[in-house]
Amino acid sequence: MGLLSEGSPLTWEETKRHAEHVRKHGIKQFITQYKKLKQRTRDVLYWGDEVEYMLVKFDHSKKKTQLCLKAQDVLGALVRRQTKDYPATWHPEYADYMVEGTPGKPYGCLMAHFNLVERNMKLRREEIQSLLEPNEEAMSITVFPRLGCPNFTLPSFEPTPTSGSSRSLFFPDEAINSGHPRFRTLTRNIRERRGEKVIINVPVYKDINTEDPFIEDFSALGDDGEAQRAAKPDNIYMDCMGFGMGNSCLQVTFQACNIDEARLLYDQLTTLCPMLLALSAASPIYRGHLADIEARWTVIAQGVDDRTKEERGLEPLKENKFRINKSRYDSIDSYLSPGGCCYNDIEMVYDKDLYKQLRDEGVDELLSRHLAHLFIRDPISLFSEKIDQNDDEDTDHFENIQSTNWQTMRFKPPPPNSDIGWRVEFRPMEVQLTDFENAAYVVFIVLLTRVILTFKLNFLIPISKVDENMKTASKRDAVRQGRFYFRKDVVTDCSPPEAAECMVNCEKTPCKCIADEYTLMSIDEIINGKGDFVGLMSLMNKYMDSVETDVDTRCTVLQYLQLISKRASGELMTTARWIRELVNNHPDYKHDSVVSDSIAYDLLSKCAAFSRESTDVPELLFSYSTKSADTIPLAVSKAQEYYHEKSKKK
Ligand code: GLU
Ligand code: MG
């Protein structure tokens, strides 16, 4: 979930005193690295996925599931197993029931690498599973359905509404990662900075027996009135960071060949975040209730919203500098590539002094604004040993702010003194139950980057429309019911205009024609095409036909594409829709929106069996036969060496 500095965490009051210092030096550190690395080029495509798992305990006699707070032991054991050629890397995550796994080394530019993903994911799942007890399961679920319900953890703990980091009525601090102080510090500082507990409201799904209006009474949990005031009628109310960051996702990071390509892909993929959120939607249940949304996005956004009342526009600005229109976790506010500037139609809040500092040092307009925008935030965790840094070498202050801007996309400069290049991270997707599905979504995105570059595709629409699409994407059954803004024509026959030229044009004629460039479409139309609109699938298939691929890889990739295509058309369900229908048809479900322990137990049992591939779920997935490889064939690795040599010489 971000930077893990060692040391003693400061209190919020102390951190606040150093906020200006962190920002000033963070920007300096960026500028130093930027100057060193902006010309870096000819890097090859490297990429990798991140999967976040939850550890779930099944009590078969009581028909109850709980989250096991043993991630630290499991992580310790996993890390001890790591050797030089070990196929996975392990990372701590927000909760003590979460573990994150990535491939041991990144994949590269060969088509054959697409055929390693699923096998590697399977290995990771098996590795975690091998350290668990017989009734425990490593599960790739996005949200634990009973998160925040009484005794949802094992061992179970009472929440502490008047003390500790979260002060939640529902979520005990013991469920937060106990291995590194960062996570509890972030939780406390977000609450203290905001001046009250965070408020998460998610519309409840109003079923025939759901109370009307749906208003819960929190007095028995020790509420002093704060929760009752914050909870909106007809909403599921939650009150701490754990309800957000205690959820899992599926992310992809890739290295571009240089900074320009990274900026271009950052922009192009931004427009697809809402569609991929909707296609991967897997979370219709929060705190034991069916919701009217199906994706975690807004829950995390509200769960880490550290803005004060002034910043949220509820009080006049006195202590704070800016009114800020979004949480630290949200969709991005601006495109970064030259062609993107005409589509930046959101009023962007940014720090004018930092912006000037960046411009004076030769950083261009768009990038300066992007950074000065990220840097309107305060650091929310700081370690005493890290306050004074060498800005020529260190990047901790930069990373501090960068890694607590949890946005749909992240633009990542190369780390200092490494052979890693400019990278882009794609962050919206929800995690799927099986390795096949997760591999399919990851491969879809990486392959799409190749297709965008090869065919010079252009998906840009005004960034305000991407925001509207994000809202649509979270709604119930967004894939089938939602209409998304999308470009009518994505195939361009020219490269994007040069930055200077574009800026001048934008100022002269403020892009009148842009409104004609896009229209509302369903996800099915966007992915599978309709009428004049080709659809992404046909472009991807065209690309597949144009590249040389071994038979196994081709067969695997085509099945991945088929999954995305069938999810888009509604022929296969999203995980969220399937979960909703299971609850709806469960004999214990009283049509009152409540997902009881026994319903959650049956639901998670089905999920576990499906993940282990011991049962088929034809509503979610066709029967497939991938020959996902363990290692790349010798002939292919020779070809890769050759490719690397060639690209170095070029
Ligand atoms: N778990 C978070 C999510 O679902 C992301 C945390 C991270 O950045 O690794 O979006
Ligand atoms: Mg993570």
Topology summary:
Blueprint: H1 12-17, H2 19-37, E1 46-59, E2 64-68, H3 71-81, E3 88-92, E4 98-103, H4 117-129, E5 136-139, E6 153-154, H5 181-194, E7 200-203, H6 226-230, E8 235-238, H7 242-245, E9 250-255, H8 259-270, H9 273-280, E10 285-286, E11 289-290, H10 297-303, E12 329-330, H11 352-360, H12 365-374, H13 396-402, E13 406-407, E14 409-412, E15 423-426, H14 435-455, H15 463-474, H16 478-481, E16 484-487, H17 499-508, E17 518-521, H18 523-528, H19 536-546, H20 551-569, H21 575-584, H22 597-611, H23 634-649
The protein binds glutamic acid and magnesium ion (MG).
The site of magnesium ion (MG) has 5 residues, from strand 1.
Question: What can you see in these coordinates?
Answer:
There is one protein chain. The protein has 650 residues and is α+β, with helices and mostly antiparallel strands. The chain has one domain: Creatine Kinase, Chain A, domain 2, CATH 3.30.590. It is 38% helix and 11% strand. The chain is built from 23 helices and 17 strands. The protein has helices spanning 12-17, 19-37, 71-81, 117-129, 181-194, 226-230, 242-245, 259-270, 273-280, 297-303, 352-360, 365-374, 396-402, 435-455, 463-474, 478-481, 499-508, 523-528, 536-546, 551-569, 575-584, 597-611, 634-649; strands spanning 46-59, 64-68, 88-92, 98-103, 136-139, 153-154, 200-203, 235-238, 250-255, 285-286, 289-290, 329-330, 406-407, 409-412, 423-426, 484-487, 518-521. Strands 1, 2, 3, 4, 5, 6, 9, 14 and 15 form a nine-stranded mixed sheet that branches. Helix 2 crosses helix 13, helix 4 runs antiparallel to helix 14 and helix 19 runs antiparallel to helix 20 (551-569). The protein is globular and about 60 Å long. The two termini are 37 Å apart. The mean pLDDT is 94. The chain binds glutamic acid and magnesium ion (MG). Magnesium ion binds at residues 1, 50, 52, 93, 100.
